[in-house]
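FAQ: What does a multi-protein file look like?

Like this. Sequence, then C-alpha cells, then the next protein.
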Amino acid sequence: MADEIELKTAPADFRFPTTNQTRHCFTRYVEFHRCVTAKGDEAADCDKFAKYYHALCPGEWVERWNEQRENGTFPGPL
C-alpha cells in the first residue's frame, strides 16, 4: 500500500454495549464489503467502514476473512 491509513477508534455503537468488541469488528467488516459490493471499489462512502474495521479487528482475522471471501467460504452475509 502506497497510501498510509490513519487509524482512529470507531465511534460508539449502541448495538455493541459491552467491552467485547468481536461482533462490532465482524459487523463493520461485513458492512464495508456490502458497501463495496453495492457502490464499487472507489466509493468514498465505504472508507469509514474500512477505517472502523481496521481499528477494531486483529489483522489475523482480517487476513483469514479475506481468504475465506476469495474461496467462497466466508461465514457472513455479504
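And here is the next protein:
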Amino acid sequence: MKFEDVLAEVGSFGRFQLMTIFLMVIPRLTLALHFLLNNFIAVIPSHHCNISSLDDGGIFRNLSQAERLVVGLPVQKDGTPNSCQMFAEPQYHLLRNSSSMAELPTVPCQNGWVYDNTTFNGIWFAIKEELTKPPPLSSSWVLCLELQYLAILVTGIEWVDIKHRTAVGILISMDWTVSTVLLVLLAYFVNDWRYLTATATAPLLLAIVTWWWVPESARWLISNRKVNSAHFYLSKCAKINGREQVMADLKPEVLSKAVPIDNQSKKYSYLDLVKTPEMRRLTLLTGVLWFGVSCVYYGISLNVAGFGVNIYLTQFIFGMIEIPAKTFIFFTLQKLSRRLNQAGTLGLTGLCLFCNMFVPRDMTLYRTTVGTLGKMSAEGAFTIVVLYTSELYPTVMRQSGLGYSSFVALIGVSLSPLIMVLEDVWLYLPSTVFTFLAFAAALSACLLSETQNVNLPETIEDVEQTRGRLV
C-alpha cells in the first residue's frame, strides 16, 4: 500500500484538508504585508530645495509658486526641478527664456527641502522637514517569513492527492493576493510609518496561535520514521472526513511501508542536494529558476512608483490583477505541462520588460498597461515555481530543496533594489538585466522534468532513476 492509497482511504480532499488550508490563511496574509511594506514606508517622494532663502523682499515675493521654481531651481533632463541643487541667486531672466540655463551658478540646498506630500499626507517627514527613513526589515525577519510560507505550502500539498495539488497550490497563493490589496488600504488610512509597521505586524500574534493547530505532514513523518505520529494525524484526518472506520485495521507498522526510505538509518542534510548527479542537476536548475523568478518579480513589485501613476492605485492594480492571473494559471496547468507554463510565463515577463523600455515615460497609460501585463505573468511564474519545485524534490528532501530555493530567491529579492539603482548608469540597464534574468530562468525551466499528473517522488533514488529525464 502506497501513501496515495492510504490518503485516498482517509480522504484526500475533505473537511480535514479544507480546515488545514483555512488555518493557513492568517499566517499567509502576513507575508505580503511585510514583503511589500517598504513600498510605502521607504519610498522617497519628489522633493526640491527650499528656496525661501532667495526671497529678496522684492520681485521674488510677488512671483507665483511656479515662477519661483523657474528662477530658483535648475531643471533636470526630464524637465523636473533638481532635487539637490538650487541657484545661488534668483535668475529672473529665465522667466523670459528658460533655455538659457547653461553655466548658471548653483549651490547645494541651503535651507532643507520641500516635499510633495499630496500623495503621502506628509507622513514621512519630521517637523523640521528632514526626511525620516524607517529602518529596513532585517534579513532574518524576511527569512523567517519565507520559511513559514514554504512550510505552509508543503503541508498543504502533501495532504492532498494528485488531482487536487494544482488547486490547493493556487488557492493557498490567493492569500498573498488578498494581503497585497489589504496593504494598500492599511497604508492609505494608517498615516505614520511606525503605526503602519505595527499594524502590519500585529496579525503575526494570531498567526502564532493558529500555527499550532496546523497538522504535520503524515507523508513527511513516515519518511522520517515517525510512524506513530503519522498514524495519529491520519486518524484525525479520517475522523474529520467521516472515514474513521478506515483506521481500525491500519496499524502504524503498516504505514512504515507506505513511504519508501532510501536507508532506514540515514539522516538527510542539505549536502544530499548535491551528492548525486540528478540531484545536483535539479539543485542547479531550480536555483537559477528561483533566482530569476524572485528577482524579476520583486523588481516589478517594488517599482510601483516608477509607472507615473499614484502609488496606491498602482499597488492596488498590481494586487487585483493577480486574481485573473492565478485563475488563468489554474486552467492552463490543467491543460498544459508545468514546464511549458513556467517557461511561458517567464518568457512573457521578459518580453514585457523589454517592450516597456521603448515606451516613452510620459505615456503613462501604455507603460502601466505593459507593466501590468508583465506583473501578471511574473505573478503567474511565481505561483507555478513554488508548486512545480515542491513536486520535483523527493519527500525526504522536499523541505531542504525548497529551503535552498528560498535562500537563492532571497538573494534575488535583496539584489533587485540594487539592480534598479543601475538606472543612474544607464536608464535602461535595470530593465535589460531583469529581461536577461527572466529569459535565463525560462531556459532553466525548459531543462527540468515534467511533474503533471505524476506521483510525488519519495526518495532520492526516485529522482535518480525516474525523474532525471525530460518527459
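Q: Is there any per-entry metadata?
A: Some entries carry free-text notes. For the entry above: Residues 364-392 form the longest helix (29 residues).
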